[in-house]
Design brief:
By secondary structure, this protein is an alpha/beta fold. The protein folds into two domains: 172 residues, Rossmann fold, CATH 3.40.50; 185 residues, 3-Layer(aba) Sandwich (Rossmann fold), CATH 3.40.50.2000. 48% of the residues lie in helices and 15% in strands. A seven-stranded parallel sheet has the order 3-2-1-4-5-6-7, sandwiched between helices. Strands 10-9-8-11-12-13 form a six-stranded parallel sheet, with helices on both faces. The longest helix has 18 residues. It is globular and about 60 Å long. The two termini are 28 Å apart.
């Protein structure tokens, strides 16, 4: 069959590439066209456009590049219709993908599948109307989305497991823990490591990294290692790390987490990855106007937590320092409590990770999603 995929971010590129491999495994005749990145390109097929040309995430950048985005939407819609795929697969990236879903649903009978559902449980819950109207099958990677979509909104979905579980399970199988080799490869000493994961976007890094570094710079019994994010120029980090003890490792987040004692993490997929590596962590998320944002968070956000581990657990298994609770002093207090091997806070967090893994289920998310995409070909009865 012919599959058209749209991914608009680095994480979407990664997850879509694994899905494509699973589709090829289950459908030897599979062919692909896609908006995506290098990882999807490595699987095969025709890359229509690189997602990096459209990676505008915040209001002002989107507004400034609106003409480019609208042209890309037009190109995408026309290309889908011209190619006539058997399945259209949307991967996260809701601002773009839900608009494409609307147009393709209106103009064609191509089945529309969504892999990694929009996070409407956190904000923009009104998008459920678009999803119900325009998306034929939704494949979820977060277990708490099932009661949200099916219970609250009467929209049946498929929970397939979480692909990050697959990715980390595979990594651990291929890379047994070897602290001596790791330290030798990256010229590190024997002190335990505090990992810093300060976000994947420039603004996140600017907002979070300086205070993260200040919080740990005097912890001389530990090595301080920053995970360089994909797509960020390595020179960008120098303005923060020069004149500090922080060492930057590029393209080495998984090996860093595998050998870390604790971590400071800007919330996102990184918090889930850190949990799956059993590294105790403090989630840090700085904002402008912290007191105002802290107040608005209680009024506008539909969820109690911002980190995926806590959302999956439905409790605060890991500390979250967000907006008005984010400070150097608070980071130091929570991190210090996690450092002793047998501290109650460290033991409790590791137990929370165990519960979280049970909730996520076994590896195999891309394979289960691929099987569902192949199986569910016709439009289901969608509420208008």
């Amino acid at each position: 069959m012919k599959y058209y995929l749209i991914a608009g971010e680095a994480s979407g590129d990664l997850h879509a590439s694994h899905l494509m491999r699973s589709l090829k495994k289950q459908d030897p005749e599979a062919s692909f066209r896609f908006f995506g990145g290098d990882m999807m390109k490595a699987v095969g097929g025709t890359q229509v456009r690189d997602y990096k040309e459209l990676a505008y995430m915040q209001f002002i950048p989107v507004l400034l590049h609106l003409r480019t985005i609208l042209r890309a939407m037009k190109q995408c819609k026309e290309d889908i219709i011209a190619w006539g795929p058997d399945r259209l697969i949307l991967v996260d990236y809701p601002g773009f993908n839900l608009r494409i879903a609307k147009d393709i649903h209106q103009l064609t009978t191509i089945p529309i599948h969504y892999y990694i559902s929009p996070k409407i449980w956190a904000w923009k819950e009104g998008r459920i109307k678009k999803i119900k109207h325009d998306v034929d099958e939704l494949f979820s990677i977060l277990p708490f989305e099932v009661p949200f979509f099916e219970g609250k909104h009467q929209y049946p979905i498929h929970y397939v497991g979480n692909p990050t579980v697959d990715e980390i399970t595979a990594y651990k199988q291929e890379h047994p823990t070897d602290g001596t080799a790791f330290r030798k490869e990256y010229a590190l000493d024997e002190r335990p490591i505090i990992a810093l994961l300060a976000g994947s976007r420039v603004n996140e890094i600017k907002d979070n990294l300086p205070d993260m570094i200040e919080a740990v710079d005097e912890m001389t019994d530990y090595q301080l290692i920053l995970a360089g994010a994909p797509g960020i120029n390595p020179d960008f980090y120098k303005q923060f790390t020069d004149q500090t003890r922080v060492k930057v490792l590029l393209d080495a987040t998984y090996p860093l987490l595998q050998h870390s004692h604790a971590a400071l993490v800007t919330s996102g997929t990184a918090a889930l990855e850190t949990a799956l590596f059993d590294v105790p962590q403090v989630v840090c998320y700085s904002t402008m106007l912290p007191k105002l944002i802290g107040w608005l968070r209680t009024k506008l956000l539909k969820v109690k937590y911002i980190s995926l581990p806590n959302l999956i657990l439905d409790k605060e298994g890991i500390p979250e320092l967000v907006a008005d609770t984010f400070s150097v002093a608070n980071i130091q207090t929570h991190l210090a409590a996690l450092l002793p091997e047998e501290s109650p806070q460290r033991v409790a967090q590791l137990e929370a990770y165990r519960q979280m893994r049970e909730d996520l289920g076994d590896p195999g998310a891309p394979d289960r999603a691929a099987a569902g995409i192949i199986k569910y070909g016709s439009r289901k009865s969608i509420s208008k």
